[in-house]
Amino acid sequence: MKELFRILQASTVIEAIVVIALIAAVGLYLGRIKIGGISLGITFVFFTGIIAGHLGMVVNENMLIFAQSFGLILFVYTLGLQVGPGFFSSLRQRGIKLNLLAIAVVFLGLCLVLIFHRAFGVSIPDLMGLLSGAVTNTPMLGAAQQALSQIDPSDTPGMTRMALACAVTYPLGVVGVILAIMVMRKLFLKEGAGSREHKTSQTQVTEFQLTNPELFDKSIRHAMLQSKIHFVISRLWKDGKALIPTSDTLLRQGDHLLVISEAADVEKIKHLFGEQENTDWNKEGLDWNAIDSHLISRRIVVTRSKINGVKLGSLRLRNLYGINITRVNRAGIDLLASPGLHLQIGDRLTIVGEAPAVNNVGKILGDEVKRLTAPNLFAIFLGISLGLLLGCLPVYIPGISAPIRLGIAGGPIVVGILMGAFGPRFHVTTYTTQSANLMMRQFGIVIYLAGLGLTSGPHFFETVFQAEGLLWIGLGFLLTMLPVLVVGYIASTAGKVDYAGNAGMLCGSMANPMALGYANTTVDGDEPSVAYATVYPVSMFLRVITAQLIVMLF
After folding, report:
1. Is the pLDDT of residue 417 over 90?
2. In which element (H, E) is residue 257 found?
3. Based on the domain organization, do 189 and 215 belong to the same domain?
4. Taking the alpha carbons of 544, 547, 548, 553 in that order, is the dihedral positive or negative?
5. Which of 84-98, 135-149, 259-273, 282-296 shows the lowest mean pLDDT across its residues?
6. Are 487 and 107 in contact (CB under 8 A)?
7. Does residue 88 belong to any structural domain of this protein?
8. How far is CA 215 from each of CA 79, 221, 225, 252, 337, rounded to the nearest angstrom?
9. Do 71 and 451 contact (CB within 8 A), yes or no?
10. Residues sharing a CB contact under 8 Å with residue 69, sequence separation 6 or more, in sequence order
11. Residue closest to 272 by CA, chosen among 208, 327, 326, 221
12. Other residues' Cβ atoms within 10 Å of the Cβ of residue 100
């Protein structure tokens, strides 16, 4: 036992790893505890680290800096890699409105920081720490600390105070967003609402009857040229018999067409074909294979490396095999199967056709799910390297003495998003299973939180229980509640955003998965989660970048 204590008291690699691992283990265990149905989850690692630091646990400073930095880098890069494939498509149509509202939440918080700086004389670094905790965004804290270290590398006390401020307001950030959503629910959630609008994709399946004389005896290619809207005709019924249409298929009066399009384009397509049928083709549990006796609908996964980055239209699958690709699911988002869409490893294609043809297409695309479980570590290490190099590049802005850098938080997330979105076009396999990506993200953020708490612990309680600490608590509460309530009210009244989408947008803009868990319990569908995923990448990126700009400028 004495030998064990001697090892733990020595400033060695073993001592550092053991202390950080114990803090992480205890914090994760305590994070399971729920109070009023709310749990802090991995955030409890942060507070466990604070207690450990307060009790006098010390780790070699260089080792602690390395652990924190590596954990933060791993978290933000894998986050970017996960959201990258669906990032740009999520910005279209309704996603634009939600992201604009989320951006308003971000900038309203920054405006409050500047107002509080003038009104109360609190320093900008302290306020950025308060804001990081109020919005439960520790990568933002890491970015602000990086910017402060660029201005004055010797300002270790300033970086410690920033972490202390974050620790003081973090619990308020968790609880405050939940309280704000409770208010929004009371004001704007109508009885029975929330169960009707829970589509998990941006696409809509609609049946039309051809009654437009201008398209009688014209080909489908001609019909598509009449409109700038992109859509896919999945099935065509002629005299009660289902066909897989091609571009040369002639349309006749009374034909029924099953069309996949963006939800916002349904009304325009109705004007093109003439009449919309009332059949609900979007309801859950619909058995597509029972609709036609000779046609099947099947999801096939892209697993062949040769297909990675290839344009869908260049494969000519419809002409060669008589099948129709109706949708491509990427990172949980359904995309229209346009000819110019670049396929990626892990894409799930919904294919309609006769069974032998669909099976042949499956062989071409791969459809070997087991191959997706193999880790693609090349993209991980390459992306981290490029992200750190990008983060080091200085950007000179007139009027600012020190250059702006994306740093270890901004560079990797930008490269992660770009790698996830465009890596396959350069035949770089960036796909990782959701569980593997989540494992790396959680591992990184837990290490970062453990180290951050350990750094903040020695002075945490003496800071909280004094006048300055009480001021921090009050300002942190305002930084949490005001942006959420103001933008949430505007979204519901002027923006006409339903409660479910509004709640998810607010949780995503505040990077608050705990509040999202509460929001999901208040509606029947998964609309809050979809809205959360839509705005989270943009909000996270903006908070990381603006944190550095505010510290540099003010």
Report:
1. no
2. strand 256-262
3. no
4. positive
5. 282-296
6. no
7. yes
8. 47, 11, 11, 8, 23
9. yes
10. 408
11. 208
12. 15
pLDDT for residue 483 is more than 90? yes
Contact 129, 532 (CB under 8 A): no
Token digits for 166?
């974050």
Q: Is pLDDT above 50 for 199?
A: no
Measured distance CA(120)–CA(298) in Å, rounded:
62
**389 and 362 part of one domain:** no
Among 34-38, 160-164, 213-217, 380-384, the minimum mean pLDDT is found in 34-38
272 and 382: one domain? Answer: no
| pLDDT confidence of residue 327 | 79
Assess whether 524 and 394 both reside in one domain: yes
| Shared domain check, 335 and 224 | yes
pLDDT tens digits, one per residue of 87-128: 676 666 557 888 899 999 999 999 999 999 999 989 999 999
- Distance (Å, rounded) from C-alpha 529 to C-alpha 521? 11
Q: Is 255 left (phi over 0), alpha (psi -120 to 50) or beta?
A: beta
Amino acid identity of 183?
A: V
* Full residue range of the structural domain in which residue 166 is found: 83-196+377-442+469-553
Q: Residue 240 gets which letter from DSSP? A: T
185 & 334 share domain: no
The per-residue b/e assignment along 186-199, b for 16 or more CB within 10 angstroms, e otherwise, is eebbeeeebeeebe
Tokens of 142: 């890491």
pLDDT at 459: 73
Dihedral Cα 265, 271, 272, 276, nearest 10 deg = 80
Of 349, 371, 393, the last residue of a domain is 371
> Mean pLDDT over all residues of the chain?
80
Cβ neighbors of 210 (< 8 A, separation 6 or more) are 216, 251, 252, 253, 254, 255, 256, 257, 273, 274, 275
Residue 65 falls inside a structural domain: no
Cα separation, 299 vs 306, in Å, equals 19
**Residue 458 within any structural domain of the chain:** no
Q: What's the rounded mean pLDDT across residues 149-175?
A: 80
Listed residues 371, 405, 431: the one ending a domain: 371
- Map residue 216 onto helix, strand or coil: coil
- HEC string of 439-450 equals HHHHHHHHHHHH
Q: What is the pTM of this model?
A: 0.66
CA dist 333 and 41 (Å) reads: 27
Are 286 and 250 found together in one domain? Answer: yes
**Domains: count for the chain:** 2
Q: What is the CATH number of the domain that holds 307?
A: 3.30.70.1450
For residue 163, pLDDT over 70 is answered with yes
Same domain, 219 and 126: no
Question: Does residue 46 sit within a domain?
Answer: no
Q: Fill in the DSSP letter of residue 38.
A: B
Positive/negative CA dihedral, 417, 92, 550, 169: negative
Over 415-476, what HEC string results?
Answer: HHHHHHHHHHHHCCCCCCCHHHHHHHHHHHHHHHHHHHHHHHHHHHHHHHCCHHHHHHHHHH
